[in-house]
Amino acid sequence: MAEEDxxxxxxxxxxxxxxxxxxxxxxxxERWDGAAGAAVAFAQAVVGEGFGATFFVAPEALxxxxxxxxxxxxxxxxxxxxxxxxxxxxxxxxGAYSYERQREIVGLAKKAxxxxxxxxxxxxxxxxxxxxxxTFHALCMEGFRQGSCSLPGRMDNEQCSMWFGSYPFAxxxxxxxxxxxxxxxxxxxxxxxxxAAVSYLSYETYTPPHLRIEEPDIHEYxxxxxxxxxxxMDEDEIPAQTIGxxxxxxxxxxxxxxxxxxxxxxxxxxxxxxxxxxDMDLCWTPLAALHEMSDRQLGVPRGLExxx
Length: 308
Description:
- The chain is an alpha/beta fold.
- The chain has one domain (about 5-305): TIM Barrel (Alpha-Beta Barrel), CATH 3.20.20.370.
- The protein contains nine helices and twelve strands.
- It has helices at about 5, 30-50, 60, 65-75, 100-115, 135-140, 220-235, 260-275, 285-300; strands at about 10-15, 55, 80-85, 125, 145, 155, 160, 170, 185-190, 205, 240-250, 280-285.
- The strands form two sheets. Strands 1, 2, 3, 4, 5, 8, 9, 11 and 12 form a nine-stranded mixed beta sheet that branches. Strands 7-6-10 form a three-stranded antiparallel beta sheet, with no helix packed on it.
- The longest helix has 19 residues, at about 100-115.
- The two termini are about 30 Å apart.
C-alpha cells in the first residue's frame, strides 16, 4: 500500500435533503426556498473549506430542488438517493419491510429519481438509517453500489434503525447480516460515532454521540471521537480511512441567524490541526470514487454482486 494512500484521511460530509412540508410523519423544511437554500448554503460552506459533500436527495424533492441540485453539482459535489418510504405513501420505515418489499420500494424510488433528474444514481441512504438484514442485498440488486446507511451504536426499534455492534469503518457488506463485513458489491461508509458508548447503556432507544454538524455541543466531543476513530482504523489497517459527518436541509442552513457555517469552519480547522499532528493528508472523495479507490488498494475486482 502506498504511503500517501495509507495516510489519507477522507472527510465524508453528507446532507439529507427532504421536500418542504414532508408527509407521512417525516419532517421537512417549512418552505421550498428554505429547502433549496439550505442545500446550497451547505455546498458553498464545504467547498469554501476546500472539501465537497454527498447530498442524499429524496426523489420527491428533486423536481422542486432542481436549481439547487444543478448548483450543487456545478460545485463538484456528489448526489445520492435518500429513501423515506412514507414520502411515497408507504406506512413504515425501510427496515420494517421484507426483502421483496424493500426491492419494490427502492426500485420505485430509483425510477422516480431517474424520471425527475433524467439520470440514475448508484449511491444510497435510508431515512433515519433504517435497515434490516435484507437491506444491503436489496440495494445491491437494485443497482446501488455504495452508500452511507449506518450509524454504529444506534438503537431505535420504532425506526428499525438497530446498529448495535455494527462494523464502524468503510467496508463491503454482507447479504445476510447488516452489521458485518462481507464480499458483496455494496460499499458502506458509516457515519462516525462513539459506537462503543452503548455497551454500558440499557436504553431501548439510544443514539450515541456522532458527527452531526448541527449538534450544539459537537465541539465538546468531536476531537476525541475522531482521534479514537483514527487510532482504531490505524490499528485495523483500514485501507479507506473515513470520518463521516451528517446534517440535514431541515435545520436552517443559510438563514440570517445560521450558526452552522461557523460551526463547520471550526470543525474543519480542528480537522486540519489533527491531520497535521498525525501526519495525514486530509481530503474529500465522493463515495463512488472512495469505493473504487478502496477496491484498487485491496485488489478487489468489480462485479462482486455476481457472488450474491
